[in-house]
């Protein structure tokens, strides 16, 4: 483990899903002292927050949940009960896209990083097996990292923030294989966009389909609890 990394503080965005749990495991494996951040943004699948708590507790890392209530502006099937979560694949950017979500999430992570004296932020975005969200793409991440330098006291005073996206080029199967190797218990995670209060999955939304296909391709039993 490089001495430059060992015990360096890092903020890890932890939704409670499969990807973020794997991202946390990777950050810890690299030697970072992780601080997990979850956002209660009015998501209909808020069972993922309980999952995030379980994951952080199992990893023995600090965990904060910040209430931001993006359901106040709506515009997404994840934050507006009047918009149904699709049960089939759609073309283009789907209605499960939450307007500016990752920009808001990363901004809060950046703020906490400044408070902690951390220069490293981890987010589990993926540009291979994903739903076409614009804020999961490499160009967006590179732009936000440039913004971080201009928008913060730490950045303008010479510090350098790094936005880590260790999953961005991995298939869902490769993510699952990686997490399994690192000891992630995927039974603790919730990925479903329409999960019930107990975290049980619908099995038909885009997130469920990608997850199930990933476990099948990885040749690893799927521990997901379905309704």
Protein model, in words:
36% of the residues lie in helices and 11% in strands. By secondary structure, it is α/β, with parallel strands linked by helices. The protein has a single domain (9-218), classed as HUPs (Rossmann fold), CATH 3.40.50.620. The chain has a five-stranded parallel beta sheet with strand order 3-2-1-4-5, with helices on both faces. Helix 1 crosses helix 6 and helix 6 (172-181) crosses helix 7. The protein is globular, with a radius of gyration of 17 Å.
CATH architecture call = 3-Layer(aba) Sandwich
What portion of residues is helical? Answer: 25-40%
Provide the CATH topology. Answer: Rossmann fold
Major β-sheet profile: 5 strands, parallel
């Amino acid at each position: 483990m490089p001495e430059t990394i060992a015990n360096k503080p890092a903020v890890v965005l932890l939704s409670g899903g499969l990807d973020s749990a794997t991202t946390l495991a990777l950050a810890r494996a690299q030697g970072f002292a992780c601080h997990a951040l979850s956002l209660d943004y009015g998501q209909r699948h808020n069972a993922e927050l309980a999952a995030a708590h379980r994951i952080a507790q199992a990893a023995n890392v600090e965990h904060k949940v910040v209430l931001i209530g993006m359901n106040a502006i709506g515009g997404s099937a994840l934050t507006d009960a009047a918009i149904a979560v699709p049960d089939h694949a759609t073309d283009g950017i789907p209605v499960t896209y939450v307007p500016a979500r990752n920009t808001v999430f990363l901004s809060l992570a950046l703020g906490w990083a400044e408070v902690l004296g951390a220069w490293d932020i981890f987010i589990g975005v993926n540009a291979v097996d994903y739903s076409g969200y614009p804020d999961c793409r490499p160009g967006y991440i590179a732009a936000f990292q440039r913004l971080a330098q201009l928008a913060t006291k730490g950045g303008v005073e010479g510090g350098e923030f790094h936005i880590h996206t260790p999953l961005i080029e991995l298939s869902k199967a490769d993510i699952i294989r990686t997490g399994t190797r690192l000891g992630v218990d995927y039974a603790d995670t919730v990925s479903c966009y329409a999960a019930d209060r107990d975290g049980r999955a619908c099995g038909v939304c885009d997130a469920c389909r990608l997850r199930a296909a990933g476990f099948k391709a990885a040749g690893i039993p799927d521990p997901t609890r379905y309704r």
